[in-house]
Give the backbone structure.
Amino acid sequence: MITISVIIGIIVAYLLGSAATSVWIGRMFYNVDIRTKGSGNAGATNTIRVLGTKPGIIVLLLDAFKGWLAVTLGYLFVPELYTDIQLNNYMLILALAAVLGHIFPIFVGFKGGKGVATIVGVIIALFPTLLFLICLGIFITVLLVSGYVSLSSIATAVAVPFIVLFVLHRQHDALIIISIMIGVFIPLTHKKNIVRLFHGTENKFKLGKKKT
């Protein structure tokens, strides 16, 4: 059943996802549009690269928080008669709306980031803490071995559906679908990075980059 409250919830999720934290922080505190510097991506990694570690971490936390909040607030808009399956389906739609909001933010000309941090927030909201901890372990391991954030993000995303299916043994179709979407979607948003990785021209991650 689609009600006005359900539609409002989806709109709210998209608007929360559209909160362009890296762009706003760059403009307000550094007089820089993060999308015109570094890799041109409006995300935490490029923020660290261009503005420094502190603003980059703030962006990372805020982007993850808005993904978590977009899904969690969804419970306020769900009709009481919704079954567990309908609820999970609705949470999936909210998660997708939040991520699309991050990638295509209405507040800054529909040019946003790749959605990795926002997806982390979605994972925290929808799945057991174990999934986040395993993903964090994979991300850090790949990053320490390779030095590439992009490769770490891709490897972690591809692992998500396998963890959901074979470690967490989730049964809800919506949760399985969203895990598969994560495994496919993140590599697709990193197409340029994949090309640079193959050509050996991808930038390695370094903390402590000086502000511009």
User: Anything to note?
Assistant: The chain is about 70% helix and 0% strand. The chain has one domain: 4-199. Residues 4-199 form one domain.
